Amino acid sequence: MTNKNIIILIIILVILAVGSFFLIRSNQVKNQEKINDDSQLLGADRDEHGCIPSAGYSWCEIKNKCLRIWEEECVDVTLGDQKVFCERDNGVWYSDDNTCEKNSLTKEECLAQDGVFVECASACRHNPKAEICTAQCVQTCTVPVVIGK
């Protein structure tokens, strides 16, 4: 081979190498743009209130905002609401100590509702100043009030 042919061959190889580099680089940029486009779709679902369900957000009517219920409860914690919801669930609301009792529940039912079960509570537990109190045990179940069911 002559020097002229070797120079032409080297030029062709350089052109092919540079062209291959730019072709590979162009494909990498396109792939990155595709990944970025796909990531824009995640969480793009919104409900009628603008909440993103795929991110765990749901609409809370009481608080008038989107929230994740495991981070913030959708409740309006006023004592009046607690009384209403306690009584709605067949409980008895005691405003002096802000408790809800469901004394018709068994121990298992009470604990299943995250309640505190007492095997032998005083019959006068809500009236400590009672002049006459019988010495009898009363089974009680004090349960947390669940608002918004």
In brief, what are we looking at here?
With 149 residues, the chain is of the alpha+beta class. The chain has 3 helices and 6 strands, in the order H-E-E-H-E-E-H-E-E.
Topology, pairings included?
Elements: H1 3-41, E1 58-60, E2 65-67, H2 79-88, E3 92-94, E4 99-101, H3 107-112, E5 116-122, E6 137-143
How would you describe the overall organization of this protein?
This protein has about 150 residues and is an alpha+beta fold. Among the domains are: about 1-40; about 90-145, no CATH class. Helices cover about 35% and strands about 15% of the residues. It has three helices and six strands, in the order αββαββαββ. The strands form two sheets. Strands 3-4-6-5 form a four-stranded antiparallel beta sheet. A hairpin with a 4-residue loop joins strand 3 and strand 4 (about 100). The longest helix has about 40 residues, at about 5-40. It is rod-shaped, with a radius of gyration of 35 Å.
Helix content: 25-40%
Backbone structural class = alpha+beta
Our Rg estimate from Cα atoms comes to 35 Å
Main pleated-sheet profile: 4 strands, antiparallel
Low-confidence spans: none
How much strand?
A: 15-25%
Total strands: the figure is: 6
**Arithmetic mean of pLDDT:** 81
Please identify the oligomeric state: single chain
Order of helices and strands: HEEHEEHEE
The total count of helices amounts to 3
Strand order of the largest sheet: 3-4-6-5
The coarse overall form would be rod-shaped
Gap from first CA to last CA = 89 Å
